[in-house]
Amino acid sequence: MASYKKFVLLRIPQVVLTLVGLSILIFTLVRFIPSDPARTAIGPGASEEVYQEYREELRLDEPLHMQYIGFVQDIFNGSLGESTRTGNDVAVDIIEKLPATLELIALGFTVAVLLGIPFGIVAGLNKDRLPDHFSRFVALSGIAFPRFWLAITFQVVLVSWLGLFPLTGRISGAAPAHVTGFYTIDSLIAGNFDKFTDAVWHLILPATALGFSTFSQVTRLVRSEMIEISRADYIMTGRSQGIPEWMIAYKYMLKNAFSSTLTVLGFRIGGMLSGATFVELIFNIDGIGRYTLASIVRLDYNAIVGVVLVLGVTYLISSAIVDMLYGYLDPRIRLEA
Amino acid sequence: MSNPILEINDLKASFKTYEGTANVLDGIDLTIHEGEAMALVGETGCGKSLTTELILDLVPAARTSGEMKFKDEVVYSPSVDERSTLRGENISIIMQDPMSSLNPVFTIGEQMTDILLFGGGEKSPIDYLKHKLTRNGAERKKARERAREVLNEVQISSPERVLSSYPSELSGGMRQRILIGMALLADPDLLIADEPGTALDVTTEKKILEILKDIVDNRDTSVIYITHDLGVAHEVSDRVTVMYAGQVVERSPTDVIFDTPMHPYTRTLLESVPSLSTGIGEGSEGSIPSYVDVEAECRFADRCEFSEAACRGVHPGERTLDQGQSVACHLYKQDTGGRSADDTDEPYIGPPPWRTEQKRAD
Which segments constitute the ABC transmembrane type-1 domain (chain A) (predicted)? Predict the structure, then answer.
């Protein structure tokens, strides 16, 4: 396992370097938007004096590289700069908004993976038979229907017609005492089990709308990988030595099939974070997706940079985790390191 | 002669393809006796590997018919199919390509102990979980010990290191030895070696064949060597069966076939063996015909320089000759041991030209 530890440790400097590159890129790109954030923030009626003062406060009067250095210094002080829209520090805003979205993603992603993998296996093992056709139907609809359409359909059918779920929001009544910002976790910490079930109940529809396409992709990928691998020579070797069929499928094939599925999963987490906006809008959840949208509309430089950084960090962390799992699942990859 | 261990009668196999039904195996008969080494010879695509894979029911896409007996017990017939129970303990295959025949994501040790602990098909997933949870040390240790034994047997000098390696860390020759070792784990009565060593360089191939032959001699197992190389067949086998395009065309004791090859196809095979004295062999024109919509005929007819009308219309039944040879070819008459020779309806073209020449030379 020494080689595996080395494999994992080698990833860390890579992640840091990529983050530095990413921050420079976003920081610069945002400043190329042909518009004036200071004027947008204080409004057209403000005097020239106030305007200049505000520009200085935002460091917009300094050259670009000095702005960046100041930005990095702020980060080490735990700040992402002031949001021109909310007046708060962007870091504070993000910490406040992120839990709602993460809760959605966590549930949507977990369910997508936990359902997608067995669906894919069963479909792959029964190629062109009934379970395969069924899973193809479900998966294709997941890919074809956009998230917002799913979300609205859920609201119409499951909420309005059948009354099974709450329509919008994260919880009925008051939120549990703030500890982490995750209502599910906070309500458990407060020992209020009713609030916990209520929070989960509120999560189900938006999480499903958000995770359905991931579920579809996982299903299709696992299916095609299983079919591909069932033709491999080593599968015939196992069979010819009398290894039972269940072991061939769930041990010898699955471990091979899953390593390529993992790659896609890493991207999906980041994809879900940026795709959460519609779902949050429709279900009236005050998360990072809505925050991003509002920041872009109001040209809130610091907020945009902050949010994109969070997005980048999520991508990086999830792909680093995928890399590590990948190396764990497939010895050929960690041996190359 | 000793008892037959495996008998195959009239084995046919076809596949559905987009062009139509491909009738690949056209009534194969094979008998392997206890302790016998048989070579199944023929060019690529003639159905050698398919025949042996069908013995263990490893080709689900094939539609098969025929009958198989293992140690006098019917394991395959229109009403019985117990071929999968033969896997491992009774019959074991050494797969063709050492580079792709080992699972890349498990260590050699894990793959080998899995065969020992869970091979044979009676263990359920519950057993597996129990084994994993209780970390059944004693059983695992025993299995690992046995794996080390067979690795020693295939002359791997550091078995412990190999057991904890992944396939990608090992050379082709090493992997080929491991595949042989795997096939030996459950002490099979019949070993099938599919082109052993062919994918490797010549020196390694030779070494692999030596190891394999030693093991077979020591253990006294029956063995089928699949090969396209008559030279290899000469080294390792007692008896040769030549296949062409899904038909058996000739059977012969190994020491006889090199002096008196009967079937025209066997002769072209022999001529194409390169040798030091005569340089690169002749090679043979053409290739195996399409298996889709083949008629009842000699499938070699199109490539055969002696073929006549009869060859295309009528399937040549197998004709027994002296010296223990038999051949499916219209150039020969059934050897009836001196009794009246003309009671067969099968077409007969006439003695093959090389035989008459030989006689004249005598």
Answer: 98-326
